[in-house]
Design goal:
binds lysine; binds pyridoxal-5'-phosphate; 8-stranded mixed β-sheet; TIM Barrel; 2 domains; diaminopimelate decarboxylase activity
Amino acid sequence: MFNNNTIQRFNETETPFYYYDMDVLRNTLDACRDASSKYGFHVHYAMKANFNPQVVKTIQSYGFGADCVSGNEVKAAIAHGFDKCKVVFAGVGKSDKEINLALDANIFCFNVESVQELEIINDLAAAKGKTAGIAIRINPNVDAHTHHFITTGLDENKFGINTWQLNDVAETLRKCANLKFLGIHFHIGSQITDMEVYRSLCIRINEMQDWFEDHGFAIKILNTGGGLGVDYYNPDTNGIANFESYFEVFSKFLRVKPGQEVHFELGRAMVAQSASLIARVLYVKNGQKKNFLILDAGMTELMRPMLYQAYHSIENLTKGSGIRDQDKSEIKYDVVGPICESTDCFRKDVELPQSHRGDLIAIRTAGAYGEVMASNYNLRDQVLSVYSG
Ligand SMILES: Cc1ncc(COP(=O)(O)O)c(C=O)c1O
Ligand SMILES: N[C@@H](CCCC[NH3+])C(=O)O
């Protein structure tokens, strides 16, 4: 993926940094738009995946909507030019301040996650003399078959409203004059690659549609959430998420009536492959049991491996580029960061060519939940961003 000119540019740049390949981003967005528009589906970009301004600006230029999970994300979406009629706001813990901000911004829809939240949004909207568009986030108890830390649609998860509470929801909706019921919302987890999971979700959504309609609520919006996964193992050969199969499942199994809109909230699949974290080897420590490659980036720059034992492909760009002599002998290294935590390890036993101080290392597929989850723990500098031409 990286040609010699790019690596030369990296060599002249202070590390660590996120490198955004804008062609990869645009190719991915083209694929997403083409596959979704085939069925008239509406895609909202999940801002939480990456709110790097260049990335968000590019996504907005495609006409996608924005899925937000905080007042600041709502503000950022509007500041980046997303049409407020395409801004939705989810989250189990929306504060009064955030709700007021979203009401003032006249966003399209609040995805509401508890009965109590319905009442609060109604009261805050009433105080402003407004009506808030809302969708009920239902926890459908569908297993996403992904890492349990990023599963959101099981009874045991805090997200959404459980189906046994729907009678309360209906009763509350009938009482709340300042809410406009738009539809139902789901999001069962992230990094989902098994399309069978989405078929199960469609079946559940169909059942839930029946429930609401049987109770006198017309559904305009069916929001299926996001979660489509990417290939962390083959970022070059399988770089575009499987949008075709994903949208096809919904087109086949979701019951959509005339006048209804189907909404999606994709994050990872839209941005993950567009960035790599580029770091430099600071030290090579050869122990009796282990060889350590100590990088100038760690969990403060990319937290996913430490938080979810997530796999990211790790490459030595200096060895791959011919800048140094090719050294074919592969050695196993624990690739670690400089942070004062034993978990600060990108992966153990990574097979790499013999590596040296100053070599450039790329940690791939870092465009989603990478830069946004960076911290300044250990008083680290803010991680930099570099963009392709
Ligand atoms: C409500 C909601 N919608 C959409 C997303 C985006 O998920 P993903 O990045 O897996 O597509 C998330 C994050 O998991 C979410 O919580
Ligand atoms: N941050 C997670 C995904 C969580 C998605 C938001 N609910 C990840 O890196 O995979």
